[in-house]
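Lecture 7, part B: from sequences to assemblies.

Below are the input chains for today's worked example.
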Amino acid sequence: MSNFAKPAANRKYHHGDLRQALIDAAVAIVAEEQNWNFSLREVARRAGVSHNAPYNHFAEKRDLLDAVAAVGFDTLRLAMASALEGAADAGEAMIAIARAYVSFAAGNPALYRLMFGPELAAPDGVRPELAETSGAGAKAILRDVVVRGADDGLFTVSATEETSIGMAVLAAWSAVHGLSMLIVDGKTEAAAKPDVLVDGLMTLVIDGLRRR
Amino acid sequence: MSNFAKPAANRKYHHGDLRQALIDAAVAIVAEEQNWNFSLREVARRAGVSHNAPYNHFAEKRDLLDAVAAVGFDTLRLAMASALEGAADAGEAMIAIARAYVSFAAGNPALYRLMFGPELAAPDGVRPELAETSGAGAKAILRDVVVRGADDGLFTVSATEETSIGMAVLAAWSAVHGLSMLIVDGKTEAAAKPDVLVDGLMTLVIDGLRRR
DNA sequence: ACCTGAACACCGTTCAAGT
DNA sequence: ACCTGAACACCGTTCAAGT
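Predicted structure of the full complex, as C-alpha cells:
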C-alpha cells in the first residue's frame, strides 16, 4: 500500500478524475492513429480501468466523441483568439485568424475531421443543439472581424443588415473550412505551403467583400 | 427449378453480377440511414448472399466504401457537367455548377461525407493515389470554367500563370466545398435556401477574381 | 457513487470446404 | 471462379454484483 509519491492524482483509488483521464486518452489515441476509430474498450484499457468504467461518465460512446470534439473546438477557438491580437486592421485580422484556423486543421487532421464529422451533426436522429453550438466559437470570432471591417469601412457590407453580414461570415468560414478540409483530406497537393494558400484565398475573399 | 421470368438477372445462380449488387445495396443503405456505418454483413444480407461472398469482389470493407464513393463522384461530375450546358458566360457557368455542387451535397449528405471522409484520404497509411483522383472530375470542371473566364477577360487571372489559375480554382472549390460541408453538418441554419447562399458566395468569389 | 466481471448480440476477416 | 459455414478475435452495451 506504499504511496509512490504520485503528486495527488490516484489517491482515492476511485481514480480521482476518470472522466478527464478518458478524454485525455481518447485525444491521445486520435492524435497517434490519425483517425477517430478508437474503441471505447481501448480507451478504458489505456486509462487502466475495466471496459465498463467509462459508462459511469458517458452514457454511450458518442458522448465521449462529443467531449473529444469539444476539446478540439476549444483549442481552435483559443488559437484564433491569440492570432487576432497583433492584427492592425480587419484585413490583417482576417488573414491572421484564417492562418491559425487552417494551421490547426492541418496540424490535427483527425481531430478536425471528428469535429466536423457526422457523429456530432447527424448521429441517427440529428442533434441540432450540438451542431449549432460546437462551431459557435469559431463563427463568433469570424463575425467580430467582419463587423470590425464593416465599421472601419474596409469591407463594404452594411453593418446593420444582418443578412449581408451573415453572408460575409459564411463566405469567410466556407473558404477557410473548405480549404482546411481539402488539405486534411489530401485533395490538394499544395498542402506543403498552407500559408501561401491561405493568404491568397483570404485576400480574394476580402477583395470580394470590398466590392459588394 | 421453374424460372419466374426474372428478366435476365439471376440465371447463373452465381448471381450474375454480385459486385454491382453489393455496391447498389451499400448506396441504398447509406441513403436510407443517412450515414456510412453500414456493416459488410448487412450489405451481404441485403444482396441475399452469405456474409463472406463480398470478399470475392472486395478485398476488404474499405474497398466497398471506395466503390460507393466513386458512384458519388460520378454522380456529382455528371450533375456539374449538365448544369454547365445552359450557361452563357463563365460567371453564369461558375454559379450554375456551384449550385449543382451544393445541391448534390445537400441532397446526399451521407454520401457526400463518405466521399470526403477519412476512409479514402487517410485509411491507415494514407492512399494518396485515391485521394488525388477521386475529386479530380469536379476539380477539372471548375478549372475549365476558370480558364474560360480568364480567356474571356472576365476573371483577372493570368491564363498562363499556373499558380494563379490554381489559386482561383482552389478558391472556388474551397468556397463550394466549405459551404457544402457546413450545410451537410448542420453548422449553418440557412440550409433551407441554399441557392441564395450559393449565389451570394459565388458572386463574392467572382468579384474577388475580377479584382486580382 | 463508482467500479468489476460475465454475458449478449454483433462485426470484420480468415480458412477449409463445397460447386 | 465464386460461394458457404464454422471459427477467431474483437466491439458496444446491459446487468448483476461488489466496495
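Note for the exam: The mean pLDDT of chain A is 85. Keep this in mind when comparing with the next example.
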